[in-house]
């Protein structure tokens, strides 16, 4: 699985993060700045209406009144209001969303590529994405129209005249709609799980005559053949039955096809032998990976960076074969208690050939396990050679018993894997053994598989990500509806979601526009990396290019002043857009589909980070919603 | 009635709506048919749809999923397709093959009749994605995916000959010519599931799809069956061939037989099996020569008519010359005598000197004189006695069009090396050619098994046979030697050098030595590489100095 952004441990994320300050600091900074701006704007608007001094008192009083309002917020009243919200949702026939979902799943086979090589990935991505979009649209409609409708129909007065606080009205709606969304999500989750499992389950049989297999095993010690195709005729699995393995009582498995395998079981022996093929395995899993820190050694063995082989995508760096170039992963917290049977490594390489070599054979690679202590007497295990495989997870178990080279006597010794571990740290070195061929790796391409968690649990975690997004949207929707009419609130919330989803894109376009700006470019353009900056300019430049039919890679070729005006207007527009985007949650961060689809456990730290972000936003949104409703009530 | 302003406005609006509805109706009226199913009337759009065969049912299979997806995009089909194209590029860049495949599937659901999608993305899968995989089995799998993708395209576009032809091309060229062609061909022959999936489209059980030597489907033969389907569409006149030269389009079908013959010989199957394959090739090549090919000049051309047209020109020239027996020679003589001394000297320069020493100016002068000296049929007509002048003019006109035709036929023949492949098919069927190839194949095996003496013997037996073949068919020398003899000749020289011997003095194909030797000028261009001295500096690591 491609991991372009590393998941940091929760506390590190909260307090320190990558840029030196954590998420908490960023949150406080943003909230303070936004509060200040908010207060100033309110004061300006109020003073225009009632004069400078009066406005000061009015604003100060509103803020002062907020504290007892928050303090005295009653959970009982919130619960009562949320019950009303639930009843309203049911009246508005939210179940329609579920019906649409059911119809989509029923006809999914029509639209999906059933011949895919990894059906589990496809079905999971589809089920999760469909759920995500539907639930978000539902949350959007529910949350944004409720309050404006109540105000418009004047039913609001029946509530507002009761001893109910504005916080309770806002919170009641958020909680109520969230409960409706949760119930809907639970329903969709159960149906999706069934959909995925049902679509992936299939059977094969072994059509070969058992007597023939037995004869072959007796004669050659091995039988090779194929299973029958599955019911849809999409795939078969090659099988190799090894007599020795059978005698040892080991599992016989089919070859990997379409991302799964089957266990082959034999009952009886000789003429009475029968073979049965089990259900598919390995497609719905939740591996827990332990990632190491990756560094590279150059072809001369000195510290360096990996090579770029000309790939547009710089995710993987390459090491040259037949040289000292190596990729080194340093793992931490490697203890005998965690890995009593050795290190179960999983490897996902990219291979780049500069010459054809032997087409029938894959490129040879070498793995070493080394101690991070440069001066250790025994530093490295003897090499483990393997045939590299691409685009599949290659399992390499490093056993406890290893052979290593004694640095002093230059002899080979038997050692325990943990003799090489230093303060819980261990290095795994990868080299390409063939001259002229290259291995490409990224940090997440080699990891220790520390455990397997139940898939259903991971599935729930995946849905938790969707749930958090739903809650966020409900929060945004309800808050927007405290001061906007229904349709406008919906459009505003939708805009927030779209901007939040395309944060990377907005930043890229902004970066490109800044770099291309004749004045700003030389000053601040350099702080934006080339990789992130997108060519083509902002909205005005794009429009000009569309009309003049100039593609994004060629110069605009306008008079200097005209270009400056276009580009500066663009920079200003994009700058404000970026500022808004920065205030919004990055919705893409909540998407954990790829973890589920690729069979990796969703990191609890990631879930915790998502939950913290949502909690932060909900707090701010409730406060903002309160003030808007409060001032609106005053106005009324 | 109170004739007030709002009411007047409503009336105006109503009238405007009705007025606007008229052209809308004219444009969009659906086609209507009478009780017998005969076409009655239709709006402009429906008429155009009928005229250009654009109705969905006329293009190919109607897929409910595709139709519902088109509807679901609510008129934003173009936007959706553009986003999907962008996504597919992104997935390809990020090597996310599952999502790439899924996205292509969606694009084709949205734009099933956009031929570019099928061609571009089919090529993408079979040619670009497949090579990203290191394991040749995975590569084959993606080549298959590309082919299957194209085949799906033919279902939606049953009248697009180009798509059918492309399927044939992928079967032939991708499986049969890739670096991994040995492995791909073998995998294809054994891929019973794939064969079964192809059965609804081409007859995989027929002998035309299967090699004679092992009765298994062969990629080149299957490619031919797809070329036939493509040609059938063009021949039936359902839809004209667009974006492809008809000459090349029709030549691929017979070439598939020849490629098949070449391939099985490379794999060691000689004798009757290979000869029969070449005979098939010749039969189809001759048929191809008799086919009427639309040309860029707007006339139909038959490649086989070269000989007949040539004979016609000879007869007509003779006929014209009979009317003025000495005219051609007289005019030539007069024009030669009219040349100045320098001009006469210039044209008498021997060819070798001309090629080596002539300046551009001299060449231009030379060309001008030669065109002045040329005696055309019209020149001859001017010397024909007046009483026969009109029939001479008629003959000259016929000659002129025959000459034009033969020039065009010749150009087309050259484009597909028509004469070369015809001779090649004839020669390859001979016992001698089969033996020559068999000896080369055997020599290769001997070399693999380090049997140098046997290899040398087989090479030499092969050279004797090749020498005799080239003596009889010198026109094959250049192309055939280049394509088929370069590697064996290199191996022969390696064999000799390992045996400590030089090329024998009586080597039967001395021109091969010259043809395959590295030109001196090239070896001068590449100076020997100076070995680099690598010094280790403990502080900075290793630096090449």
Q: Describe it for me?
A:
The complex is a heterodimer of chains A (636) and B (545). Chain A has helices at 10-16, 23-50, 52-71, 75-91, 95-106, 108-111, 119-152, 156-160, 166-200, 210-220, 243-247, 455-481, 486-501, 503-516, 520-524, 539-548, 560-583, 593-598, 604-635, and strands at residues 222-226, 238-242, 252-253, 261-267, 274-281, 286-291, 293-297, 303-304, 317-320, 326-331, 343-347, 350-353, 364-370, 378-381, 384-387, 394-398, 401-406, 412-416, 426-432, 437-441, 446-453. Chain A has 636 residues and is α+β, with helices and mostly antiparallel strands. Chain A has a six-stranded antiparallel beta sheet with strand order 8-7-10-19-13-15, with no helix packed on it. With 545 residues, chain B is mostly helical. Among the domains of chain B are: 1-45, no CATH class; 75-299; 430-525. In chain B, 70% of the residues lie in helices and 3% in strands. The longest helix of chain B is centred in the last third of the chain and has 27 residues, at 389-415.
Descriptive key words:
heterodimer, A: 636 residues, alpha+beta, 4-stranded antiparallel sheet, B: 545 residues, two-stranded antiparallel sheet, two-stranded antiparallel ribbon, 6 strands, extended, disordered C terminus
How is this structure best summarized?
Chain A is α+β, with helices and mostly antiparallel strands. Chain A contains 19 helices and 21 strands. Among the domains of chain A are: 72 residues, no CATH class; 77 residues, no CATH class; 126 residues.
């Amino acid at each position: 699985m491609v991991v372009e952004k590393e998941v940091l441990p929760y506390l590190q994320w909260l307090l320190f993060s990558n840029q030196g300050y954590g998420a908490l600091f960023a949150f406080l900074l943003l909230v303070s700045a936004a509060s200040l701006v908010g207060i100033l704007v309110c004061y300006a608007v109020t003073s225009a209406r009632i004069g400078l001094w009066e406005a000061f008192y009015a604003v100060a009083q509103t803020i002062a009144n907020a504290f007892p309002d928050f303090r005295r917020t009653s959970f009982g009243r919130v619960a009562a209001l949320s019950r009303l919200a639930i009843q309203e949702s049911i009246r508005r026939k939210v179940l329609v969303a579920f019906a649409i979902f059911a119809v989509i799943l029923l006809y999914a086979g029509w639209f999906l590529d059933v011949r895919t090589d990894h059906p589990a990935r496809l079905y999971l991505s589809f089920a999760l994405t469909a759920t995500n979009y539907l639930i978000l649209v539902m949350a959007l409609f529910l949350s944004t129209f409720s309050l404006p409708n109540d105000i418009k129909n004047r039913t609001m007065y029946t509530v507002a005249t009761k001893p109910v606080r504005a916080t309770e009205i806002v919170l009641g709606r958020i909680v109520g709609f969230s409960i409706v969304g949760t119930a809907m999500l639970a329903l969709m989750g159960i149906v999706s799980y069934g959909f995925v499992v049902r679509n992936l389950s299939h059977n094969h049989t072994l059509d070969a005559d058992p007597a023939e297999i037995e004869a072959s095993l007796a004669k050659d010690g091995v039988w090779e053949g194929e299973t029958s195709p599955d019911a849809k005729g999409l795939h078969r699995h090659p099988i190799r039955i090894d007599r020795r393995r059978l005698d040892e009582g080991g599992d016989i498995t089919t070859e990997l096809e379409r991302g799964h395998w089957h266990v082959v079981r034999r009952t009886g022996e000789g003429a009475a032998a029968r073979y049965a093929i089990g259900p598919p395995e390995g497609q719905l899993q939740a591996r827990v990976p332990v990632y190491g820190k990756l560094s590279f050694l150059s072809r001369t063995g000195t510290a360096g960076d990996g090579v770029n082989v000309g790939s547009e995508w710089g995710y993987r760096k390459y090491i040259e074969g037949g040289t000292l170039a190596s990729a080194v992963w340093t793992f931490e917290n490697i203890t005998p208690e965690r890995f009593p049977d050795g290190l179960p490594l999983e490897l996902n390489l990219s291979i780049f050939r500069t010459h054809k070599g032997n087409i029938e054979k894959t490129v040879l690679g070498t793995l070493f396990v080394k101690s991070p202590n440069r001066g250790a007497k025994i530093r490295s295990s003897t090499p483990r050679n393997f045939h590299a495989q691409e685009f599949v997870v290659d399992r390499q178990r490093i056993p406890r018993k290893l052979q290593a080279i004694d640095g002093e006597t230059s002899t080979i010794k038997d050692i325990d894997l943990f003799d090489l571990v230093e303060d819980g740290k261990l290095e795994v070195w990868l080299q390409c053994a063939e001259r002229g061929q290259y291995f490409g790796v990224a940090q997440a391409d080699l990891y220790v598989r520390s455990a397997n968690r139940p898939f259903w649990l991971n599935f729930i975690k995946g849905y938790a990500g969707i749930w958090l997004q739903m809650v966020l949207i409900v929060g945004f929707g309800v808050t927007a509806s405290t001061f906007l009419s229904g349709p406008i609130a919906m459009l505003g919330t939708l805009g927030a979601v779209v901007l939040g989803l395309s944060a990377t894109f907005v930043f890229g376009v902004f970066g490109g526009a800044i770099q291309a700006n004749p004045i700003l470019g030389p000053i601040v353009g350099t702080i934006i990396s080339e990789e992130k900056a997108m060519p083509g300019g902002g909205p005005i430049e794009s429009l000009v290019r569309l009309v003049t039919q100039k593609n994004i890679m060629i110069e605009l070729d306008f008079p200097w002043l005209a270009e400056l005006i276009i580009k500066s207007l663009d920079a200003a527009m994009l700058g404000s857009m970026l500022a808004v985007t920065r205030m919004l949650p990055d919705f893409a961060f909540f998407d954990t589909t790829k973890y589920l689809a690729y069979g990796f456990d969703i990191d609890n730290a990631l879930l915790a980070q998502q939950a913290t972000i949502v909690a932060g936003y909900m707090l701010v949104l409730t406060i903002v919603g309160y003030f808007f409703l409060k001032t609106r009530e005053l106005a009324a | 009635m109170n004739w007030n302003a709002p009411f007047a406005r409503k009336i105006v609006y109503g009238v405007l709506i009705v007025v606007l509805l008229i052209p809308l109706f004219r444009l969009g009226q659906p086609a209507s048919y009478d009780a017998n199913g005969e076409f009655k009337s239709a709006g402009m759009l429906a008429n155009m749809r009928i005229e250009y065969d654009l109705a969905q049912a006329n293009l190919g299979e109607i897929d409910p999923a595709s139709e519902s997806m088109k509807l679901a995009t609510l008129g934003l089909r173009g936007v959706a397709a553009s986003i999907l194209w962008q996504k597919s590029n992104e997935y390809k860049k990020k090597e996310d093959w599952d999502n790439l495949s899924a996205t292509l599937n969606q694009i084709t659901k949205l734009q099933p009749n956009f031929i570019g999608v099928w061609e571009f993305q089919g090529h993408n899968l079979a040619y670009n994605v497949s090579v990203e995989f290191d394991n040749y089995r995975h590569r084959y799998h993606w080549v298959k995916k590309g082919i299957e993708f194209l085949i799906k395209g033919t279902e939606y576009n049953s009248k697009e000959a180009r798509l059918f032809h492309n399927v044939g091309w992928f079967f032939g060229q991708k499986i049969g010519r890739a670096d991994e062609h040995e492995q791909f061909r073998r995998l294809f022959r054994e891929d019973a599931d794939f064969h079964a999936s192809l059965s609804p489209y081409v007859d995989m059980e027929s002998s035309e799809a299967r090699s004679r030597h092992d009765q298994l489907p062969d990629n080149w033969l299957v490619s031919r069956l797809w070329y036939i389907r493509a040609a059938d569409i063009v021949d039936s006149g359902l839809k004209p061939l667009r974006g492809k030269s008809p000459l090349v389009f029709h030549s691929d079908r017979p070439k598939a037989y020849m490629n098949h013959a070449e391939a099985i010989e490379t794999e060691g199957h000689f004798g009757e099996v290979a000869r029969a394959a070449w005979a098939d090739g010749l039969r189809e090549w001759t048929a191809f020569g008799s086919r009427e090919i639309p040309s860029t000049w707007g006339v139909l051309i038959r490649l086989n008519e070269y000989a007949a047209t040539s004979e016609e020109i000879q007869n007509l020239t003779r006929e014209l010359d009979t009317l003025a027996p000495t005219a051609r020679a007289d005019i030539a003589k007069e024009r030669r005598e009219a040349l100045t001394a320098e001009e006469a000297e210039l044209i008498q320069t021997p060819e070798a000197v001309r090629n080596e020493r002539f300046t551009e100016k001299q060449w231009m002068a030379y060309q001008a004189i030669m065109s002045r000296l040329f005696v055309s049929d019209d020149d001859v007509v001017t010397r024909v006695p007046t009483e026969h002048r009109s029939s001479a003019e008629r003959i000259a006109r016929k000659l002129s069009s025959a000459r034009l035709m033969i020039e065009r036929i010749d150009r087309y023949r050259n484009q597909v090396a028509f004469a070369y492949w015809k001779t090649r098919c004839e020669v390859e069927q001979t016992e001698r050619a089969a033996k020559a190839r068999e000896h080369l194949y055997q020599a290769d095996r001997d070399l693999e098994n380090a049997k140098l003496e046997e290899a040398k013997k087989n090479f030499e037996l092969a050279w004797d046979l090749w020498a005799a073949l080239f003596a009889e068919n010198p026109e094959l020398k250049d192309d055939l030697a280049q394509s088929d003899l370069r590697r064996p000749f290199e191996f022969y020289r390696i064999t000799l050098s390992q045996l400590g011997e030089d090329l024998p003095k009586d080597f039967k194909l001395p021109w091969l030595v010259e043809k395959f030797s590295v030109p001196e000028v090239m070896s001068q261009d590449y100076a020997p590489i100076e070995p680099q001295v690598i010094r280790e500096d403990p502080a900075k690591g290793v630096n090449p100095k």
